[in-house]
Amino acid sequence: MKLLITGCCGFIGFHLSKKLLNKNLSVIGIDNINNYYDTRLKKERLLILKKEKKFLFAKVDISNLNLLNKYIVKHKIKYIINLAAQAGVRYSILNPKPYFESNVLGFYNILETSRKNKIKHLIFASTSSVYGDNNKFPIQEDDNTDKPLSFYAATKKSNEVFAYSYSNIYKIPCTGLRFFTVYGPMGRPDMALFKFCKNILMNKRINVFNNGNHTRDFTYINDVVDGIVSIIKKPSKKRTPFQIFNISSNNPIKLKKFINMIEKLLGKKAKINNLKLQKGDVIKTHGSNKKIKNFASFKIKTETFDGINSFIDWYKNFYKR
Ligand SMILES: NC(=O)c1ccc[n+]([C@@H]2O[C@H](COP(=O)([O-])OP(=O)(O)OC[C@H]3O[C@@H](n4cnc5c(N)ncnc54)[C@H](O)[C@@H]3O)[C@@H](O)[C@H]2O)c1
User: Fold this and answer.
1) Which of 95, 202, 221, 310 has the smallest set of CB atoms within 10 Å of its CB?
2) For ligand 1, mutation pick of 9, 12, 60, 110 (most atoms within 8 Å of CB)
3) Hey, what long-range contacts does 271-274 have (CB within 8 A, 24 or more apart)?
4) Nearest CA residue ID for atom 2, ligand 1
5) Which domain range does residue 173 map to?
6) Partner residues linked to 123 by β-bridges
7) How far is the CA of 76 from the centre of ligand 1 (A)?
């Protein structure tokens, strides 16, 4: 099976590549290694992947259709998992352009190359943010996604509808995965867990929006990766071969409680800067994972406390703190 993972130097792409390589599959990875966050972390992930014999890497930007297509033709790719994107809700408020380039133009290129190369299954990352301020919980895949609160969410919603149209017209099997706040070792420096641990360990204040009253369905990286792996060989068989799944823990936790767990594990109290609700932020996420559980072998195996502990172990070791 020739499998391409875009965004392989990113948090989820790295862990997914590692898992597939451990299963003795060949992984062809691409990434533009942009500097949205510390590239040291991306390069470190790449170094680990490059140790594997069955891993091949090229620096390719998905916004360059020619280069992307050439690479896919050269390696006779038949499966694509698109994780490359400009991530982050808050950054999209000040910097919408990279979201357009990677998430809209880049994703259009992924669809075009899938069409040209008769891709057997295109799996792509969407997000829980597409649900906006929906207040029916747990949120299910057919709940409303018409009111994204940020441009980031809007670009991901556009991916879903673009993919649907390609599935409908060209019969490309497409599966969109709505990830819910993924966390774990080698996680992203722009996300809460990373920032909180860093600042608490450095005796600095942590910024807590909405006075800690946000609720998030934190989902551990290994569970997310298992969810992706479980559907690779399960494209939709419908006339329009398109499907969407939540990848969530179905276990919402208030940010205040999440911070308490971090404090307990670090053995240190956080100094908190309480701030008001940030523009574009969703107050609560809580996703039902019934659909993927019924469809594939998806199972949540990691308790949040244990997941945070694994992150902290990695963080202390990596940054020698
Ligand atoms: N981590 C989460 O909690 C979460 C939640 C919902 C959705 N997602 C989505 O999952 C996917 C992976 O997220 P992540 O947390 O691993 O983010 P990440 O930023 O760590 O990984 C994305 C990778 O894609 C690369 N990239 C960005 N634009 C590119 C382009 N134009 N061409 C080639 N490579 C490019 C980046 O360099 C990065 O290595 C993203 O699509 C993100 O929007 C993540």
Assistant:
1) 202
2) 12
3) 271/200, 271/203, 271/204, 271/205, 271/206, 272/205, 272/206, 272/208, 272/212, 273/205, 273/206, 273/207, 273/208, 274/208, 274/211, 274/212
4) 182
5) 3-183+220-251+286-300
6) 81, 175
7) 24
Q: What is the DSSP string of 129-159?
A: GGGTT--SSSB-TTS--S--SSHHHHHHHHH
Residues 6+ apart with CB under 8 A from 110: 6, 62, 68, 80, 82, 122, 124
Gap from CA of 269 to ligand 1 centroid (Å): 31
What is the whole-number distance in angstroms between the Cα of residue 108 and the centre of ligand 1? 16
Q: Which atom of ligand 1 is nearest to the CA of 62?
A: 32
- Joined together, the tokens standing for residue 87 give 């991530």
Is the pLDDT score of 321 beyond 80? Answer: no
The reply to whether the predicted model has a pTM over 0.90 is yes
Mutation choice for ligand 1 from 6, 8, 9, 11, CB with most ligand atoms inside 8 A: 11
Contact 31, 109 (CB under 8 A): no
Q: What is the pLDDT of residues 120-159, one digit of tens each?
A: 999 999 999 999 999 899 999 999 999 999 999 999 999 9
- pLDDT at residue 182 in the model: 98
Q: Say yes or no: CB of residue 9 within 6 Å of ligand 1.
A: yes
pLDDT tens sequence across 209-239: 999 999 999 999 999 999 999 999 999 999 9
CB-ligand 1 contact for 12 (6 Å cutoff): yes
Task: Match 């940030």 to its residue by tokens.
Answer: 278
Q: Is residue 43 part of a domain?
A: yes
Q: Find the 35 Cα to ligand 1 centroid distance in Å.
A: 12
In a domain, 198, yes or no: no
Q: Is 31 in the pocket of ligand 1 (CB under 6 A)?
A: yes
CATH number of the domain encompassing residue 7: 3.40.50.720
Number of domains in the chain: 1
Q: What is the rounded CA–CA span in Å between residue 296 and residue 314?
A: 30
In a domain, 307, yes or no: no
CB-based contact 255:180 (threshold 8 Å): no
Parallel, antiparallel, or unpaired for β 215-216 and 253-254?
A: antiparallel
